[in-house]
Amino acid sequence: MNDLYFAYCQGDVLLTREGNIPFGDTPPVEFQPWEHVTDILYASHSVHIYHLDRPVTGHPDLQMMGLRKTFEILSPEMYSLAGKCAELVYWDQNSKYCGCCGAPMKWHTEISKHCTECGKELWPQLATAIIVRVTRSVPNPNESSLLSPLSTLYQEEILLVHAHNFRTGYFGLVAGFVETGETLEECVRREVWEETHLRVKNIRYFASQPWPYPAGLMVGFTAEYESGELQLQRSELGGGGWFRKDNLPIIPNRSSLARWLIDDWLKSMDNV
């Protein structure tokens, strides 16, 4: 079975010119011994992980590409594995020494290290964040007749926001990190209130997604507007508001949980 080679440099991953993860019985290029991070097994494949000192350039058969962009060309399985390997690279770079005694840490299993002096064991840590789709039902100004079907008297709107840390001009959903001692549902309520001054109800779990940028887990929820007037947290948000399905701004690409939540809402609107 061919080995797989995941090599990273400055947020980019090494791919073949055809857009695949390099594979074969030998490495695609000569890696330096200190660039090797660790090896794991995946579906009977030996997976070799590297953190490169410099990107691979000028190679006729290889290219470097941003990890997020690989969603568009890698299979879901390979994209997920690329994310996991990237997280292990990040963790390795940030766990060189023991937090208790300061001695060097050494790989112990595929996903753990132990201290060479005091024996403390360490595993990769995930930063858990919530992301929530908030919707509300409002009167439809185009349907005011008492003879109109009840389903057309109201229309649904979705709350979308533009955060300062978004790289492009798209609008996404309210999101934020879970704090110590807080449930996921409590985090949903707090983040919505802090960012928009709105109260929500009927919080429901939707789905989760690994988010290796650099080491996170996104947990998606849906919720309904309960009360409050929209007041954006300007320190974090550059814009936001309520949108109908026919006046949406630019929304995230299909690689993100935010887009899955929005697409699910749009599909439900088509079925009304």
Describe the structure.
This protein is of the alpha+beta class and 272 residues long. The chain has two domains: 3-94, no CATH class; 127-270, Nucleoside Triphosphate Pyrophosphohydrolase. The protein has four helices and 15 strands. Strands 1, 2, 3, 4, 5 and 6 form a six-stranded mixed beta sheet that branches. Strands 10, 11, 12, 13, 14 and 15 form a six-stranded mixed beta sheet that branches. The longest helix is centred in the first third of the chain and has 18 residues, at 76-93. The protein starts with a strand and ends with a helix. The mean pLDDT is 93.
Q: Indicate how many domains the architecture comprises.
A: 2
What is the helix fraction of residues, given as a range? 10-25%
CATH superfamily of the largest domain: Nucleoside Triphosphate Pyrophosphohydrolase
Number of strands: 15
Low-pLDDT residue spans: none
**Rg on CA atoms, Å:** 23 Å
The assigned structural class equals alpha+beta
Give the ordered list of helices and strands: EEEEEEHEEEEHEEHEEEH
CATH class of the largest domain: Alpha Beta
Mean pLDDT: 93
Give the strand content: 35-45%
Give a short account of the largest sheet: 6 strands, mixed
CATH architecture of the largest domain: Alpha-Beta Complex
Determine the N-to-C terminus distance.
50 Å
Please work out how many helical segments DSSP would assign.
Answer: 4
CATH fold-level topology of the largest domain: Nucleoside Triphosphate Pyrophosphohydrolase
Q: Shape, please?
A: globular
